[in-house]
Structures are given as C-alpha cells and as structure tokens.
Design brief:
Length: about 290
C-alpha cells in the first residue's frame, strides 16, 4: 500500500533539506508525494475576493510562476527519489493549514511532512508560523523535521503520554507503519499524576498495552514536567522519533517555544510526529 504524503514548501533551502529528509526516510517505501505551495500575497487578496475581471490575468501570472517553481522543485528532488516514489505538484491560493486539511480529505493523505525553521530574529520561536498553524489545526498526522535532523533508521520511538486520550479513536496508521519496520520499538513514557486513578486513564493505559503488546516498553516515573521526563529517558536510551498527541490535555503547546525545546536537546535533532486528536464516534486506528 502506497503512503500518501504532502510536503509543503516555500522554496527555501531549509524546505528542500526537509523534503530530501522525507524522501530518504521513506526511500524503500511505495509513496505518492504531493509537493504543496500555497500563496496569499497582499496584492492578490482583493482581486480574488471581489472577482475583478480586469485583474484576473495578474493572478493567473502569479499562479503560473508558482507552478513553474514547483516543477523545478520536483526536478531538483528527482535524483533523491526512491524507486517507488511518485510526485505531484499542488499550488493553491489559500492559507496553508486550510489547504492541507482540504487535501487530507480529497487526496486521502496519510501524512504531512514539513520543516520547522523559526521566524527570523525571533529566538523564542522554534517553529515558523505556518508550521505552528498546521500543527494546531491539521486533521492528519504531521511529521515536523528540525533543521539539525539527520536521517537514520527509526528503531526507538518515544511516546510521552498522560493517558488522557482514547487511543482506539486515534489515527495511528503512520505510527503503525514505523512500528512495522524490523527491530523498531515503542517506548511509552508516563509521569504519574493524581488523575491517573480515574477510570478513563486506567482504561487508556490498558488500551496502549493491548494495542502494542510486545512492541511496547512502558516507563512510568514520578510526577515531573514533560521536558524533564523526556530528558531523563533520553539520557539513558537512544531516540530517533518523538511522538505526541495533540489535544487539550497534553503539553504540546510547551513544545512550540524555544525555552522548553532548549531543555530537550534531542528535539532539535530528531523528527517529531504529531497525531491529531480523536474524533468522537469515528474509529481512525487503522
């Protein structure tokens, strides 16, 4: 089964590095890649909103330039492509997060993969504004790739969790794909809290144990911050992929600011998979 992966690009060198990282990560996999660029330049917004027929040519010209750049980007990536990689380009006048959510449904995306270069001059920001919006709003799993990431075999996946999720309702397809590789292990990390005695969290814990079985190693520690728990674990174990679930209970927000990330040295070097929250009444665990 071919994986369907969207790779947003702003045509920067960092975006190109992130794209090549993804191609290498899935080199031996059958994949369909969508190279995506969205644009909302200020001089075009009024034209598109009021549908002025006298100015439509200007928008068409801009779109053609974007389309040409995407074709150039695809050609530049061709030497790095695997034998079962297929590419499509996609340009749209839209906000990136909105367009990716539309594509997730129409193109049945399995994953969005993007780089995480922060805003120029804003030291406290690790992820750029586009990446932050995508992380917060995506209906599809998102793989974010730090600037210093190096491609390596994923053998150890670290999954910090507070058991505040119904795991049977999560989209775990990409995580299951990684776990399907030989010798790959899921390290579930949990820091105890007073809420752990609740029936819901006990049930979530049993869901994880039942779902991942022998592939999972569970580490439960005394109550501490997420960053401290991750650092303590990473100091004793190798980690090639960090996974978190985005929901109102988790500390994902804390990973989007530089001070916390500075305390998690591994996070500036390894890819970070963000799973969207569960949807009530719909099982997405395939």
């Amino acid at each position: 089964m071919s994986l369907r992966i969207a790779i947003p690009t702003d045509f920067s060198p960092h975006a190109a590095r992130a794209a090549r990282f993804v191609l290498e990560l899935f080199r031996e996999e059958a994949c369909t890649f969508f190279l995506v660029h969205t644009y909302t330049p200020s001089f075009l917004r009024a034209e598109y909103l009021i549908h002025s027929p006298g100015q439509i040519g200007l928008g068409d010209s801009y779109r053609q330039r974007v389309t040409d750049k995407l074709e150039d980007f695809r050609e530049a990536l061709s030497p790095d492509a695997g034998p079962q990689h297929e590419f499509y380009t996609h340009a749209a006048f839209n906000a990136l997060d909105s367009e990716l959510n539309e594509m997730a449904g129409k193109e049945k995306l399995d994953l969005i993969a993007m780089g995480t270069q922060g805003a120029t001059g804003a030291r406290e920001v690790l992820f750029g504004s586009n990446a932050v919006r995508v992380l917060h709003r995506s209906d599809c799993p998102v793989l974010v790739i730090p600037e210093e990431a190096e491609v390596r075999h994923i053998r150890n996946i670290l999954f910090p969790t507070d058991y505040a999720v119904d795991y049977d309702q999560l989209n775990l397809a990409v995580l299951n794909h990684f776990l399907g590789q030989p010798k790959t292990r899921l390290h579930v990390l949990h820091a105890f809290t007073e809420a752990d005695s609740s029936e819901e969290r006990q049930r979530a814990r049993e869901q994880l144990l039942g779902r991942f079985g022998g592939q999972m190693a569970l580490t439960e520690t005394e109550s501490q911050g997420v960053a401290d728990a991750i650092n303590a674990f990473a100091g004793e174990h190798p980690v090639e992929l960090l996974v978190m679930v985005r929901n109102r209970h988790t500390a994902l927000e804390n990973f989007l600011v530089r001070p916390v990330v500075d305390r998690i040295g591994l996070h500036t070097r390894i890819p970070f998979l963000v799973l969207p929250p569960e949807k009530e009444g719909k099982n997405q665990s395939n």
